[in-house]
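Final report, Chapter 2: Outcomes

The project's central promise was a pipeline that accepts a single protein chain and returns its three-dimensional structure in a standardized token representation, suitable for archiving and comparison. That pipeline is now operational. To close this chapter, we reproduce one record exactly as it appears in the project archive, with the input sequence first and the structure output second.
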Amino acid sequence: MSRLALSLAAFLVAATPAYAHIGIGDPQGFAHGFAHPIGGIDHVLVMIAVGLFAAQLGGRALWTVPLSFVSMMAAGGVLGLASIRLPLVEIAIAVSVVVLGVSIAAQVHLPTLAAMALVGFFAVFHGQAHGAEMPETASGLIYGVGFVLATAALHAAGIGLGLMIGKAGDAFGNRVLRAAGSATALVGVAILAGHL
């Protein structure tokens, strides 16, 4: 299943240059949408952490947890595009970095539905931020496709990294995951402190 997810993500990312052809889609909107998640350390850390968290949980969580994030992020993106503001968006995004980092570091093994709900809750705030920052000249649909594909690629990177670390052996792999989770949480605390 992990090979399928990584192959799908690679295919989707590789397929994006088709938007650059004249008369097809909105290349600027797509580029802005794709760049938004990878342009901020808070988004990058959370999206990779979702993949790591899913790999750590294993089983169905490997694909349902990232799918929950992407789905709820898209819903949040619609809110942002519609100029519907959520309270404390930047703080919720910073808290998501901390919570997912701690979850990885502490090796929290939530039931799959609880993990989906956790990442889905935070995804709404990430999506709202993406949608709210769409350039006025961009197409909402093409912009949304961009940030969804970038997010899926970052999730796939986190899953791949988590599975690779898992193959390194329990003792070594657990230490690496704990260190990665702790570093993520510390960066999240610094981001949160900047918003308070």
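Archive annotation: The chain has eight helices and no strands.
This record, like all others produced under the grant, will remain available to the consortium after the project formally closes.
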